[in-house]
Amino acid sequence: MTKAHTKxxxxxxxxxxxxxxxxxxxxxxxxxxxxxxxxxxxxxxxxVWHGHPVWFLEGNPIVGYDKxxxxxxxxxxxxxxxxxxxxxxxxxxxxxxxxxxxxxxINTKDLERWLQKSKTIQWDYKNxxxxxxxxxxxx
Length: 139
Fold this sequence. Notes:
Elements: H1 13-20, H2 24-40, E1 45-49, E2 52-57, E3 60-67, E4 72-76, E5 88-89, E6 96-100, H3 108-120, E7 122-123, E8 137-138
Antiparallel strand pairs: 1-2, 2-3, 3-4, 4-6, 5-6, 7-8
């Protein structure tokens, strides 16, 4: 199969329920994000975690999105290390985000590049509690 014909994995039932709670514009954004994430991270575990869809690799949170007051935010847990101009620091750890108010705002080439980086550039959030809030870079 060529890249253009790659199909996304089916969306999790809890993720579908999350999408149904959104406006049409928000749902369009989230469905595009979920499709791209599922294509580029096909083996990732996906579930609604802390109230919003999140994808994990080997138990480590990689990417998720959630409804904000005026937009949909996509969050990459290790995104500050991607060194990408379209991602903005979020929180006190290594996360970075992008925000979308309309599906037309999503630059799919940027999104695909960020998702590719999310597979290889990771900080160990899975063990952050065990390490008393200290993050270590995964190889």
